[in-house]
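The data are quoted verbatim for reference:
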Amino acid sequence: MTGVRAGRPVQYPETTRRLDHAGPVRPTSGARTVVRPVGYGDVEISGGFWGARQERNRVTSIPIGSRRLRDAGNLQNLRLGAEPGDTRAAYEGPVFMDSDIYKWLEAVSWELGRAHDPRLAAELVEWTAALAEAQEEDGYLNSWVQAGGDPARRYEDQSMGHELYCYGHLIQAAVASHRAAGYPDLLAVARRAADHLVAAFGPGLHPGLDGHPVIEMALVELYRETGEASYLALARHFVLARGHQTLSGHGRGPMYYVDRVPVEEATHIEGHAVRALYFASGVADVAVELPGQDAAGLEAAQRRMWQDMVDTRIYLTGGTGSRWDGEAFGDAFELPPDRAYCETCAAVATMQWSWRLLLATGASRYADLIERVLFNGFASGTSLQGDEFFYVNALRVRGGAVPDDHRNPAAGRHGWFSCACCPPNIMRTVAQLSGYLATHGDDFVQLQQYAGGSLRAGLADGEVRLAVTTDYPWSGRIEVEVLAAPGSEWSLDLRVPGWCEGATATVEPADRSNGAHPERPAAGTPGSYLRLRRAWAAGDRVVLELPMEVRITVPDKRVDAIRGCGAVEVGPLVYCFEDHDQPDGVSVDDVVLDGGAATVSWRPELLGGVAVVELDGGVRNGGAPVAYGPRGKADAVTPARLTAIPYHAWANRGVRAMRVWVPLSEAVLD
């Protein structure tokens, strides 16, 4: 079946025609990776924490995206771009409006790969037709510039024009539609745009860079999808040309645009957080596809910068960006909880970068960070109903706070934003999430993230199929059953998170005819993989136990804003205190933690079902202002039993005072 708009045929995807099972990142066979991803099409998440979120994303969030994009004028802008003459006066929104369409179309595409939906398929056709009609003969496509009716204005503002940024998200959406839904038309639009870029940019051509990276990783993935080497070459050019201080303007210097220092010389990540992290992801993609001698400096810089970020510039929730000014990374240990920016898009970008470094190195620390971001700084970006979103994810909101900006968490989540980058970014990430759960090699399968469901992976000697049963993150028990396996030996690698002490895995053989019993538990080391190697058989079962004790985490003393404080963590979850859950008359603005016995209990009636932590604390001066004597001692503390909820679930009952970091009592500090 075909649909036609303005004479351009668009194929209607009646059925899911997945060309392969790859996810958002598919290194070529020659890429220098240590592990390879188990494609999103080979992993099914069923039920549990992420299964429920994927269902809400499909049923609620993505359909909302369509309505919001139409209401905001995105579709109308494309049609203006297809009209002759100057229609700029009718254009709605900022210059990068097209990018919101592309991120949402990527979400639609991954969902079509998971399960065919005629409504989503029709959406993909309609929006693709509008894009094809708006695209110029030479491949150029940008509704903001085209609505102005003046071709000479192309690429006139490289710092803030976002033209290549929009192309990047177009390409990512097109790759997803081709891989997941077997849909060729959007890929054709993207290839015309990419061919236009190859003809326009590079050595001896247009010298410019885009002020907002993303084109780099998009071009690499298009190269992987099509085999066209010129796309990889252009991505390499954009990576190596950056860092020579050619970008500035709009009141910003080169640092903001991630253009202060060449990547091979960089010691830390800096500038606008999303720009910096998207660029780092593109560098990682380019590096693994280049010959080793050409990429050594890029690889070393990537690992150096990532480790510095984790050591000095990241929040407990996995959020990044400590400055509202420029939505930027701050200095080392500049991590104020109340002024944390922690843009939801930056959480997405942190996971993208970490996933690429995991593939390149095989080191579990990258999966550890992905887990921290997923369950905390990313999950907080969406309401439990899936219909409202956070742009900014602060770790502290005071009682009675008056928001000075619609992005301020004190204003609560919103259904959409005038700068709508975050909602469709969340949608595409949740839709493709199964592509981030597992990796494999010739003779091993690794579980990187724990979610109930099933997976299959091709090893050198045959296919492995596994079923995973777990209530993670509420329980640390993960059961893995082998459904099919080759007869040869291979390894099942289970990630032991860095926070977990005392992890054990017990193998229960399927064949007990000779009196075989469960083997003695194998112990795992925090921040590593527990490797179980044998000739596995169908029916073999592994039980992984990750003890989930309540932890009181203390910050590095160099983080001035939270010195003397503690935060509550259980398993992969960061907890917070909201006024909603405290005894009458107690505000979290005035509480302290005593470090006494803590209890965890399941509350099915609360926030859709969460585990809460209750622990001893107190209220300073009963809530009155704290007075300090000549020795700096605070006034008396009234004992109180305090309750903490998972950080990702806050602000779902209206916004009241909330904090992650709480002052520790003098008894604890002493």
